[in-house]
Write a structure and sequence with these properties.
The complex is a heterodimer of chains A (77) and B (195). Chain A is an all-alpha fold and 77 residues long. Chain A has a domain of 53 residues: Ribosomal protein S18 (30s Ribosomal Protein S18, Irregular). Chain A has four helices and no strands. In chain B, helix 4 runs antiparallel to helix 5 and helix 4 packs antiparallel against helix 6. Chain B folds into two domains: 91 residues, Ribosomal protein S6/Translation elongation factor EF1B (Alpha-Beta Plaits, 2-Layer Sandwich); 80 residues. The chains are: A mainly alpha (77), B alpha+beta (195). The interface between A and B is medium-sized, with 25 and 24 residues.
């Protein structure tokens, strides 16, 4: 199988902007990295590097515990 | 060894302002009693919880920045666990600068907060003076009249402003929800692009 698909090279946004603040209270920022169902968006989709994805995941999980971010979609309860 | 900590806790959203302030002061007080040094107390404000905690849908978020010995954290967290008005708490070692996106509720609506607190104080003083009037003898009558007049003046000024904070808070809440829905819409778009 040889598909000619253009692969868009994604660069980690956090590396690009030298953004190292992964605070779980920054809801606005973390909202970009969860799907509308509340799932954490995987690295292959967001392009985040491993190091920053790890920190991001920690922050999102903390935010979930503190009821800042949803575990699942907020409309489905 | 002294470390910097960041403790965030959620107070039951159904509590009144006075009760909430009492809860905050008990914990700041106990921190200082154990030898912690409080740098900053941020009253983040009332937020809608994304999921129910102890059958509550709203909570008041308070963030404490302080320096303390690691040994006191255990006792401090135990106190929070025992207190029924605390829905959740989280203590993290804090390095870096204080985030700028966290604003104190009082900074957000300085006037509304101070006026509501003043109104609360005024109602208390009113009660006190009423009791004093009932107890007072004829000799003390002059002073009591003066104090009651003062209280009446205060009431007149405070009652005018007393209605405002609630309206302001409601406005703020609707704004927040509007922002959230916008963000949600933006998220949807980005999801589609990714797929």
């Amino acid at each position: 199988m040889n598909h000619d698909r253009k692969v868009k090279v994604k660069v980690c946004k956090f590396c690009e902007n030298k953004d190292t603040d992964f605070n779980y209270k920054n809801e606005k920022k973390l909202r970009h990295y969860i799907s509308d169902r509340g799932k954490i968006i995987p690295r292959r989709m967001s392009g985040t590097c491993a190091k920053h994805q790890r920190k991001l995941t920690n922050a999102i999980k903390r935010a979930r515990y503190m009821a800042i971010l949803p575990f699942t979609s907020e409309s489905i309860r | 060894m002294i470390r910097r900590y960041d403790t965030t806790f959620i107070i039951d959203g159904t509590l009144s302002v006075d009760d909430r302030e009492a809860v905050i002061s008990t914990f700041t007080g106990s921190l200082e009693k154990h030898g912690g040094e409080i740098e900053q107390v941020i009253r983040w404000g009332t937020r809608t919880l994304t999921h129910e905690i102890n059958k509550r849908n709203r909570g008041f978020y308070v963030i404490l920045y302080y320096t303390a010995d690691p040994s006191i954290i255990k006792t401090f967290e135990r106190e929070m666990r025992i207190n029924e008005n605390i829905l959740r708490y989280m203590t993290l070692i804090f390095d870096g600068t204080n985030p700028t996106y966290l604003t104190d509720e009082r900074v957000k609506s300085e006037s509304t907060y101070s006026s509501s607190k003043a109104a609360a104080n005024a109602s208390k003083t009113e009660e006190v003076t009423e009791v004093a009037d009932a107890v007072s003898d004829d000799t003390e009558a002059d002073t009591d009249i003066e104090s009651s007049v003062d209280a009446a003046d205060e009431d007149a000024t405070e009652t005018e402003t007393a209605d405002e904070p609630e309206a302001a808070v409601k406005e703020a809440v609707t704004e927040e929800t509007a922002e959230e829905t916008e963000e949600a819409a933006a998220d949807d778009d980005s999801d589609k692009e990714d797929k």
